Amino acid sequence: MPGFIGEEIEPVFAQTPELEKKQGPPSGFRWRNREFAVKRVLKEWHEYDQGRAGPGWDAGRPPYALRGRMQRGSWGQGKDFYRLLLEDGRIVDIYYDRRPKGKNRKGRWVFFRELGEVEPQAEAGPEAEA
């Protein structure tokens, strides 16, 4: 059922990522004692800015020192999002939160939301109609 999930997951990689804080999309993940395989990455986006809260002309604008890092990120800041088509036909969004948690200096993977399922005909392509 589509909707917000917001729970931690354990990523599965075909090859160990070269960079700890920029891992790229996993080939699958484990969630609630089940394993899900990724068929295809549909979209990828990154959020590295930390905007200011409150009213005024600079609301949402990061402090001056952070503006240069917005495009490439910095250690422990930002999130890497991935929209995935799973092998079972579901479309989901997951993200890697780069912030350290407690004594764990690594980030964490989160199952953000489920968006729905792909129609079997739409996924098959034009050759399936012939």
Provide an overview of this structure.
A hairpin with a 2-residue loop joins strand 2 (28-31) and strand 3. This protein has one domain (3-128). It is globular. A 6-stranded antiparallel beta barrel has the order 1-2-3-4-5-6. It has 130 residues and is mainly β. The protein has helices at residues 64-67, 120-124; strands at 3-12, 28-31, 34-47, 79-86, 90-97, 108-117. The model is unreliable at 67-71 (pLDDT under 50). The chain is built from 2 helices and 6 strands.
Strand content: 35-45%
Give the N-terminus to C-terminus distance in angstroms. 32 Å
Number of strands: 6
Largest sheet: 6 strands, antiparallel, barrel
**DSSP helix count?**
2
- Rg over CA atoms, rounded to whole Å, is 18 Å
Q: Give the H and E element order.
A: EEEHEEEH
Runs in which pLDDT lies below 50 for 5 or more consecutive residues are: 67-71
What shape does the CA trace take? globular
Main structural class: mainly beta
**What do the pLDDT scores average to?**
79
Helicity level, as a percent range? under 10%
Largest sheet, order of strands side by side?
A: 1-2-3-4-5-6
Task: List the domain count as a whole number.
Answer: 1
